[in-house]
UniProtKB/TrEMBL annotation:
Organism, as annotated: Franconibacter pulveris
Transmembrane segments: 69-91, 103-121, 127-149, 156-174, 204-225, 252-273, 328-352
Protein name per UniProt: Amino acid ABC transporter permease
GO molecular function: branched-chain amino acid transmembrane transporter activity
CC per GO annotation: plasma membrane
InterPro entries found in the cross-reference section: ABC_transp_permease, ABC_transptr_urea_perm_UrtC, LivM-like
Amino acid sequence: MSQPLTLTLARKAPRLSLWLGGLLLAALLLLPFLALLPASHPLSLSTYTLTLLGKMLCYATVAVALDLVWGYAGMLSLGHGLFFALGGYAMGMYLMRQAAGEGLPAFMSFLSWSELPWFWWGTQHFAWAMALVVLIPGGLALLFGWFAFRSKIKGVYFSIMTQALTFAGMLLFFRNETGFGGNNGFTGFTTLLGFSITATGTRIALFIATVLLLLLSLALGFTLARSKFGRVLTAVRDAENRLMFCGYDPRGFKLLVWTLSAVLCGLAGALYVPQVGIINPGEMSPTNSIEAAIWVALGGRGSLVGPVIGALAVNGAKSFFTVLMPEYWQLFLGLIFILVTLFLPRGVIGLLRRGEK
C-alpha cells in the first residue's frame, strides 16, 4: 500500500520540502497583487490573466478532490463535474439575487415568472448561499454513495453510474421550468458582498481565496495520507476483500471520502463562478468530468500534487492551443495524453519515483 510521493519526499527531506512549499505559497499569494501595478509596468498582471489563473486553480482543487476517491480508494468517478457545477449554481443564485436587488432575476422576468421558487428563498444571504454550496453537493453525494456502496457497486459500473448521474443533472438544468436559467444559466453578476465583482480588489480576494482552498485540500489529503483512515483507504483500493476479512467495513470509509470529495468540488465551483462570470448546464457535461480524470492520470494519481500539476498543465495547454491553433487544439491535447499514457504510465509525478528503487 503506497503513500503519496510528496509525503515520502517530505519525510526524507523535510527542510527542502518546507522551503519549496513556502516559496511557492508566497509566490501564489503575492502574484495577484501584480494586477495593481500600472499596465505599462513590466511586471503588471492583467485582470484576464489573473482570472485565467484563478480558474485553473479551481480546476486543480477538483483534481485533488478526485484524487482522494480515485487515487486512494480506487473509485473512478466520472461525475465530479456535477458537484462542481452544483456549488457554482448555489453561489450563482446569491449573485443573481444581488444583481436583481428587490426584484426577480432577469431570466425569471423574461419568462414572465411572478415570484421566486421556494428553493430560492434565503439565497440573498451570503451565509445561506455558502451553506448550500456545502450541503447540496455533499448531500447528493451522501445519498448516492449510500445506495451505491450499500449495493456493493464498484469498478466500471460505479464509473458508469456517476457519469449517468451528471448527465441526468445536465438534462434537468437545461429545462427552463426548473428555475435555473435553462441553457443560458446564470450571468450578469454585479456585486459580491457589496463589492463590485469586476473590481481588481475583488479579483485579488477571490484569487487568494482559491489559493487557500487548494492549500486546504492538499493539507487535508496529506493529513489523511499519514492517518489510519488513509491506510484503510489504500487497502480498499488494493485489496478490499482482504480488508473485509480483517473485520473492516469499507462502506463507511468510502462514503466519507466520497462525500468529502464532493464538498471540495462544490467549494471550488463556488469560487469559479464569480471569477469566470457565468455558470450554465454545460459545466455538468460528462466530458468535463472525464477531463478531470485526465488531469489526475496525467499528473499521477495517488500523489496529491500530481493532479494539481496535471490540471494546470492541461488547462494551460488548452489556453495556449485555443489561441494558437483553435481548430486543432483538441488533437494536440489528445496527443499529449496518449504520449504520457505510453511513456509515463504513472503520470508526470512518476518521473520522480524512478529513483525510489
